[in-house]
């Protein structure tokens, strides 16, 4: 499990491609690799990955075809920066909301609005996933736990403060980029349960 509190920014230093499998070599900050063991779970842009090898600050992760298809990891290039979070331990503070690291879908950054002290990002999401997106609800974008602002048709926005921009890759994100989305598990459970009972909520058409 993860908390959605990004622990830092890491760099893709190598990508080894094989049929149906990419091995990503990602370099973490020196102070973030202490105690990492083979088999440990690390969220890379919100995707739960297993450490298969370690060389100093460089961790190796195998991304199979299904992961490459469902997430943005297959689009990564050498030199790209990613958000990372090591798996939560019992007793850790849950500063965001509980995440599984299982990406549900991807979204496109449709618009960036920059003001003096914050940034507003508008994302377009496949319509089938909008039933889980509510104003003031939780959502994870590239592994970061964020609060949804406004919801319109097939898109929603989030408001980012300077600290979030500094601590994550959102500080350098560009319009048109694709991000990983994990919807809030409690919201998904409630919506799906109500749907089975016949209380479907149509997607917002505001």
TrEMBL record:
List UniProt keywords, sorted A-Z: Repeat, Riboflavin biosynthesis, Transferase
Q: Can you tell me where the transmembrane regions are?
A: none
Name the Pfam families on file: Lum_binding
Q: Pinpoint the Lumazine-binding domain residues.
A: 1-97, 98-194
What the entry lists under Gene3D superfamilies is as follows:
2.40.30.20
Query: Which pathway does the record list?
Result: Cofactor biosynthesis; riboflavin biosynthesis; riboflavin from 2-hydroxy-3-oxobutyl phosphate and 5-amino-6-(D-ribitylamino)uracil: step 2/2
Coiled-coil regions in this chain?
none
Q: What is its EC number?
A: 2.5.1.9
What Gene Ontology terms for biological process does this UniProt record contain?
riboflavin biosynthetic process
Question: Which InterPro entries does the annotation name?
Answer: ATP_synth_asu-like_sf, Lumazine-bd, Lumazine-bd_dom, Riboflavin_synthase-like_b-brl
Q: Which SUPFAM superfamilies match?
A: Riboflavin synthase domain-like (SSF63380)
Lumazine-binding repeats by residue range: 1-97, 98-194
Superkingdom in the source lineage: Bacteria
Q: Which reaction does it catalyse?
A: 2 6,7-dimethyl-8-(1-D-ribityl)lumazine + H(+) = 5-amino-6-(D-ribitylamino)uracil + riboflavin
Q: Name the Gene Ontology molecular function terms of this record.
A: riboflavin synthase activity
Per its UniProt record, what NCBIfam families does this chain match? PRK09289.1 (NF006767), PRK13020.1 (NF009566), ribE (TIGR00187)
Q: What does this protein do?
A: Catalyzes the dismutation of two molecules of 6,7-dimethyl-8-ribityllumazine, resulting in the formation of riboflavin and 5-amino-6-(D-ribitylamino)uracil.
**Protein name, UniProt field:** Riboflavin synthase
